[in-house]
């Protein structure tokens, strides 16, 4: 994952030698964030229960940088392990969560416990440890069936799934910790993040890895619904850039919520067709299945707030980001 050169210099001044904690740091977005923090010179404590990830990537990184990266293999619901993981951290990036909408429809209580109660535990541990700032991986799903596009942060949340409700509750906890305890907090509503390392091998796989996996092996990608639903697809490098900027900013954040997307949207039919081209499988058409409960119809971020408060600017095109996923998927197949 590459970040823009001019941002790297600025970020290195903020993170070199600084202790940070990444919850969920073994996961898809978390592992890219850990890579970036490592290359910026930070000392990183990761807490992850590996319930949706493996040690593989982090083990390689720890072998390279044993002094600067440590992993606590535990749940954020384990208070002692969490306290140990956040001790000494100046910034906590809270990404640990159960991240699937359909999974949440089947397991609402479990998702609430990890995503909502888990955020409360992370905030409390951070407050006790004297952390300077907590940055939350929040979600565009909070907008739910708000019909107006683009989605602006001032709109009321209308969660459609237990996942969305748990992420919205987490944002409210972030705000109340800023107001009640003067802990600096900021929530970033990621819009459909995609990139290498996103899991394709699960019934709950997100749209890009599931399309890439199907098309690379000549199978038809499955679309739930009519395929005209739209998404603001955000490359993992853009999501990490915004996250790093939020942790480094000198702005006195106190519970702000910010969209992190690209300000462009694509229908799932267009997305499938672009991926088919990149895989050299232009003739393969999608297979349509009934729409799923909890899925949002349209999603498009207004990113003015992140532009003005973080100087965040998306820097990768959809095609470039998708090409990286296709190349990664092909490497995996070659290696496996
Ligand atoms: N991927 C997206 O499009 C997207 C969009 C909006 C928000 N988000 C948020 O970004 C964050 C990261 O998402 P991701 O796509 O990388 O998902 P992911 O599942 O790859 O990463 C989440 C990580 O959290 C870990 N985890 C789960 N429960 C835990 C627990 N109880 N204790 C400690 N660790 C636990 C998992 O093992 C995993 O490594 C999540 O908070 C998610 O809600 C993701």
Question: In a few lines, what is going on in this structure?
Answer:
The protein is α/β, with parallel strands linked by helices and 336 residues long. Helix content is 44%, strand content 16%.
Which CATH architecture?
3-Layer(aba) Sandwich
Give me the side-by-side strand order of the main sheet: 3-2-1-4-5-6-11
Round the Cα radius of gyration to an integer and report it. Answer: 19 Å
Mean pLDDT: 95
SS content category: alpha/beta
CATH class membership:
Alpha Beta
Low-confidence stretches: none
What is the percentage of strand-forming residues? 15-25%
Write the layout of secondary structure elements.
Blueprint lengths: L4 H11 L3 E5 L4 H12 L3 E6 L7 H9 L4 E5 L5 H8 L4 E4 L6 H6 L1 H22 L3 E7 L22 H20 L2 E7 L2 E2 L12 H10 L5 E3 L5 E2 L2 E2 H13 L7 E5 L5 E2 H11 L8 E3 L14 H7 L7 H18 L1
Parallel strand pairs: 1-2, 1-4, 2-3, 4-5, 5-6, 6-11, 7-10, 8-13
Antiparallel strand pairs: 9-12
Helix pairs in contact: 1-9, 2-9, 4-6, 6-7, 8-10, 8-12
The structure holds nicotinamide-adenine-dinucleotide.
